[in-house]
Amino acid sequence: MAHLEETAVLRTQTDLTDRPDKTMDNNINQIPERAFHEHVEKVKNWTNAFYLDTGRSPLYFIRTFGCQQNDRDSELAAGILEKMGFRGTEIPEEADLVLFNTCSVRANADHRFYGHLGRLKPVKKGGWPLIGVFGCMMEQDVHVGTITKTFPYVDFILGAGAVRTLPFAVTQVLFNGSRKQKTVNLTNQRGLGDDVSLPIRRSDPHRALITIMTGCDNFCSYCIVPYTRGRERSRSYDRIMEEAENAVKQGVKEILLLGQNVNSYGNDRRKRGEENAPDFASLLQDISRLEGLWAVRYMTSHPKDLSDKLIDVISGCPRVESHIHLPLQSGSDRLLKRMNRRYDAAHYLDLVRKLRACRSGITVSTDIIVGFPGETEEDWRATLRVMEEAAFDAAFTFLYSPRVGTPAADWYDESQHEIVQERFERLVEYQNELSLRSNRAMEGRIVEVLVDGESRRDPSVLSGRTHDDRLVNFGSVQKDLRGGAGDTPPLLPTAGPGDVVRVLVKKAGPFSLDGEIIRE
């Protein structure tokens, strides 16, 4: 019976990987770059009139769910809106345009999105604010149907990565009488062009999120991404380098390269006949050579595609972060096969050993799913054994979340919830011990930190990250700035966002370090 089950799993996964790229669907309409600029100007004329009529610019608010690629798309959306004359606000109730950027990877993101969307119903009066939804959830018919039927006050919906169509969507609502009708569904619209030509408003001016590829060809049996983001598509090497160079000229200290599987960058181009298309190791090395950059980060790396060439780059390029995020998902070879991960625990641990050996002090973080359908106590213990040997410095742990449309969703047994929850809590406790052990090794050391700004917990404390991606909190002001007669001249705040400072680590916790800034 087990043999038949595995055969069925493999057949299902083969069928999935043979699917055509959803972005090549004949139903997709492409909006050329010229039309993009025409719609931008049309909305800009409207915002100018709005200002003359009200004495203020129209305000926008964006709420983002999900991964860093969604963060990147939201930064582009903010840049486009500001180019069209909108200004940002942190209060959704005062916005004239509210955008939701959605994620479909896990159920909690779905629920949070619908909760926030529902709270806007009593806010919307007289057709305002305009409400738009885009992102991965809008690539699934079930969510599109829910929006149009249950939340008819949403004005427009766009697909994943379709931020170039935002000006077109706004003009459809403002000028075509669509606000008096049903939700405008533009999920079949895409914009032609490359991100480098788009305006962007970075949430952190010292950090650039740069997408190097979109989509995924791996079809892990639990993952919805290939159905929402499509197949792998690598951006032009020249355009990526241009964007990175421009970012550094603008004062960016840190670049984060994004892709569902950055290690497979360029594979699609080589399959199409571009024999000399650069791979990820070459791209990472070239970006790390940009003067003025403090660190180059990247995520996510798939273990099956992590090459010795990439490990050599990590070893030999000081600006490449001293950290790698390498999702394990499970330490059980049986479950890894059912997940369609295409590596086993021994291969994964061999990669970790190579990484630890190639660079002193490198940190390794991971993703782990607890409760994947069919998981046994032995499968779970196999994961603990890999965690022990790998000694992860940090881990993102998740309860399995069934995603409609993926093979694993059909295998889900909700009756196992209590057992899975108990395993999850024990696994998290063990990882917290590993993380604390790793961080305590930093006590008494002086580390360099790229400052992000004030800590979310305490505005009198600054926070930032080390080159190996540890969160550090430290004092922001040495003494009262008012000073006074006979006093020592007051000191200015020790640092600000984008500064690189040296911090003496005084105390470690499982999730962060506390320290004192070293004043030169």
Strand order, main sheet: write it out.
Answer: 3-2-4-5-6-7
Unreliable stretches (pLDDT < 50, length at least 5) are 1-24, 477-486
Average pLDDT figure: 90
Q: Gap between N and C termini, in Å?
A: 69 Å
Give the oligomer, counting copies of the same chain as homo and different chains as hetero.
single chain
Percentage beta strand: 15-25%
| Alpha-beta content class | alpha/beta
The coarse overall form would be: globular
Q: Work out the number of β strands.
A: 21
CATH class call of the largest domain? Alpha Beta
CATH superfamily of the largest domain: Methylthiotransferase, N-terminal domain
Radius of gyration: 24 Å
| Tally of DSSP helical segments | 15
**Amount of helix:** 25-40%
Give the tally of structural domains: 4
CATH topology of the largest domain: Rossmann fold
**Largest pleated sheet:** 6 strands, parallel
Provide the CATH architecture of the largest domain: 3-Layer(aba) Sandwich
Could you walk me through the main structural features you see in this protein, from its secondary elements to its overall organization?
The protein has 520 residues and is of the alpha/beta class. It folds into four domains: 18-191, Rossmann fold (3-Layer(aba) Sandwich); 204-321, Transcription Regulator spoIIAA, CATH 3.30.750.210; 328-441, Transcription Regulator spoIIAA (2-Layer Sandwich), CATH 3.30.750; 446-480 and 488-517, Nucleic acid-binding proteins (OB fold (Dihydrolipoamide Acetyltransferase, E2P), Beta Barrel). The chain contains 15 helices and 21 strands. It has a six-stranded parallel β-sheet with strand order 3-2-4-5-6-7, with helices on both faces. A five-stranded mixed β-barrel has the order 17-18-19-21-20. A hairpin with a 4-residue loop joins strand 20 and strand 21.
